Amino acid sequence: EAKSRGPGRYKVYDPSYGELANQRSLLLYDLRHAISQRQLSLVYQPQFCTDAQAITGVEVLVRWHHPQRGLVPPDQFIPLAEQHGLICQITDFVMQTGIRELLEHQLLYKHIPRVSFNVSATDFNGSGSCDRFIKNLAELPGDWSVIELELTESAALINLEGVKRVIEVLHDKGVQVSLDDFGTGYSSLNTLRLLPIKEVKIDQSFVQDITNNSQDAKLVRTILAMAKALHLRVVAEGVETHAQATYLKREGCEEFQGYLYARPMPVKNLVTFIENLNQRQRMQS
Ligand code: C2E
Ligand code: MG
Ligand code: MG
Ligand code: MG
């Protein structure tokens, strides 16, 4: 068929295309085994208040350590997992492991006000999805207001009915909802209107350029003003420089996440990190 469309169409059969497809299917094959082979683990990235003296929450991020490939970034395997029906398994693993690690370290449980998990649109598919979330959180005593689910706008859009149904049940049990990568989707305002959202996370692509792109700076200022009017919490993502932090603070942003403050880290390091933070606070008071 490609032949009949002339030589220009041979591009479709470019070996690099086949190679790419082949690589993806090999990655998918490996991903199917990653959970049972204990190749997945978690890292935690703290979020900070304005003076960076206290942690306001942590985001849970999954890591895949492949024995041959090394560290495979989530941006590569999460979309693959979403397309091939593996995401629920990953979400269940991440939530259950995150809650277990939190409860194993009472210091964390005592000092971390909020624990945020990333969830996908496909996590909300099907009638069993609500029970799955509830089961994943079951070990957690008391109300579940320490738990936050980070949802992307595109996720909410694809499956709004499913998302809405589950979110409303979880919200009644205290679970909070955050809109991740805010500003990158095209239904931000509609999503805000339809779901009980407590927080937005300004996408790092905006934060990156606020100090040298006046358009991005104005957009960020507008997001902050809107969030204030709607009584939404705002977390700035991907804050890497003091200049970015200074601008964000001046415009009223109150929570910060990024390499400037802390990189994502395994639970043991998080414990040490919080111990050090507490010690510094005690010395100052
Ligand atoms: P995200 O939820 O927007 O997470 C923030 C990403 O930014 C993380 O990348 C984090 O390591 C990175 N980051 C944090 N601070 C900085 C910074 O200062 N500079 C830069 N350049 N990057 C920073 P990561 O861990 O590679 O995750 C990428 C994406 O993969 C996440 O974006 C999220 O969409 C997805 N993801 C990660 N873990 C999970 C998970 O457990 N479940 C689901 N469904 N998705 C996940
Ligand atoms: Mg996130
Ligand atoms: Mg994000
Ligand atoms: Mg992202």
Automatic annotation (TrEMBL):
One of its GO terms (molecular function) is cyclic-guanylate-specific phosphodiesterase activity. Keywords: Membrane, Transmembrane, Transmembrane helix. It comes from the Bacteria. Residues 24-278 form the EAL domain. Coiled coil: none annotated. This is Diguanylate cyclase/phosphodiesterase. The chain holds residues 222 to 506 of 506 of the full protein.
